[in-house]
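Forum > Structural Biology > Help requests

Title: Can anyone predict the 3D structure of DUF6452 family protein?

Hi all, first post here. I have the sequence for DUF6452 family protein but no way to get a structure on my laptop. I'd be grateful if someone could post the structure tokens.
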Amino acid sequence: MKKYSTLIILALILMLSCEKDDICVETTTPRVIILFNNFDEPENSKELSSLTFWVNENDSIVLNQTIDSLAFPIDLTQNSTQYIFKTNNIKDTINLEYNRKDIFVSRSCGYKTIFEEVQNKSNTFNWVKDITINQTTIENETATHITILH
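Reply #1:
Sure, ran it for you. Structure tokens for DUF6452 family protein below:
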């Protein structure tokens, strides 16, 4: 009996000393949500049937589907990101500048970056007619941050 008691106590000690698994279920660093709207009717979205884009002149991504909004990555190592959009063989460039703020989320998730004081520093106006910054702080992906009128 003493043998079983010792085994039960040892098993209880081992189970209580285990740590729970750290799995990150929270979203971390957000992407910028860009909505494409109609220049003539700014409150209405205007879909793009094909779009090629580059982020900081890295590899291009080609979308051959109809979209009216996209989530784009933001450069975590710089205080600016350049987006190049191409549709119908016409290119436009948008340069966003911001301040980065790292916030500790949890032990399993680590840190996330929040982007503050987002502003459009320069852009071209070829097929893009106007750009509106809807939110100057990007801390989640629940709302539109930027609207491009075309």
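The chain has one domain: 22-149. The chain has a mean pLDDT of 87.
Shout if anything looks off.
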